[in-house]
Structures are given as structure tokens and as C-alpha cells.
Specification:
Layout: E1 2-10, H1 15-25, E2 32-37, E3 43-51, H2 54-66, E4 70-75, E5 81-92, H3 97-107, E6 111-115, E7 119-126, H4 128-137, E8 143-148, E9 152-155
Antiparallel strand pairs: 1-3, 1-4, 2-3, 5-7, 5-8, 5-9, 6-7
């Protein structure tokens, strides 16, 4: 099962390394990882997406809670949450392809953020399935470059992760 673990940790050198090291030392794979400072510059928020059974995720969270740098964590998958990912995708857009790429971008509610005489760079946000669907809908030979941020997530309503 796919789990989204949100971790509040001290914004200190080596904190990210210790969290990632915990995963690799136990043979757990990280599907995506995002991390950035919060409104409090002494804290960072890390969002980890991993695949595993309930037992595996329980073990991961127990080990994470033992790390000195970890202030608090929550498995967002346990309740209602919002998740988003950002993708920048550069596609070939020459001649009649230009209008088709613009149409596809509009269908997926994306934005063309850079235009050259031979390409468009498109910005898309949404869950991973939406971004995957865009990639599937576009001719593979037209894709020049793809960059994705990985999942960021937050609990819905009163469900918060705060120190």
C-alpha cells in the first residue's frame, strides 16, 4: 500500500541524511521525497512516499520517531488529506503540433510557461495520477524533458502537523 509520511524535523545539517539512511539501512524504498523549511526557519517539513504493508510503515514510523532530529510525524494516508505534485515538461511543438500541445495543456489545466520556436515548457500540478495521465496522452517522441517535484501533502480540516 502507498503511504505518505509527513515529518516535521529540525532544520539542521545531516537531518535529511539520517532520515534517508534509516530507509536505506532497512531496505525500504522511497518513491518520492520533498523537503523544505516551514514558516519556522528552525524546522523543515519532509514528505516521504513509500510503498509497504501496514507493518512495514509502522516500523518505519517507530524508527523515525527515535531520531533526534524528528519533532513530529504523521502518516497522511491514515485519513483525509490533500496531495499535489508539480511537473515541468518540455515538449516539441513545431507546426501543427503547437496547437495540439496547447489544447492538451488546457484539457489538463496546465500552463505554458515558456515558448520557443521549437518547444513549449508546460507546468502541471495535481496528484501523481493526473501527471501520469498527461504523459500518457502526449506522444512519447514529443517529450524532450520531464521534471517532477514528488508529492507534497497536508491533512484536511483540523488534522495538522505542528510542533
Amino acid at each position: 500500500m502507498r503511504h505518505i509520511i509527513s515529518v516535521l524535523l529540525e532544520n539542521e545539517p545531516g537531518a535529511l541524511s539520517r532520515v534517508v539512511g534509516l530507509f536505506s539501512a532497512r531496505g525500504y524504498n522511497i518513491e518520492s521525497l520533498t523537503v523544505a523549511p516551514t514558516e519556522d526557519p528552525s524546522l523543515s517539513r519532509m514528505t516521504i512516499v513509500s510503498i509497504g504493508s501496514e507493518d512495514v510503515v509502522e516500523q518505519i514510523t517507530k524508527h523515525l520517531n527515535r531520531l533526534v532530529d524528528v519533532v513530529k510525524l504523521i502518516d497522511l494516508s491514515d485519513g483525509p488529506h490533500i496531495e499535489r505534485e508539480l511537473m515541468l515538461i518540455k515538449v516539441r511543438a513545431v507546426g501543427k503540433e503547437r496547437e495540439e500541445m496547447k489544447r492538451m495543456t488546457d484539457i489538463f489545466r496546465g500552463r505554458v510557461i515558456d515558448v520557443t520556436d521549437k518547444s513549449y515548457t508546460i507546468e502541471l500540478t495535481g496528484d501523481a495520477a493526473k501527471l501520469d495521465a498527461f504523459i500518457e496522452a502526449v506522444d512519447k517522441s514529443a517529450i524532450l524533458e520531464t521534471v517532477r517535484t514528488g508529492t507534497s501533502g497536508v491533512g484536511r480540516g483540523e488534522r495538522i502537523l505542528k510542533a
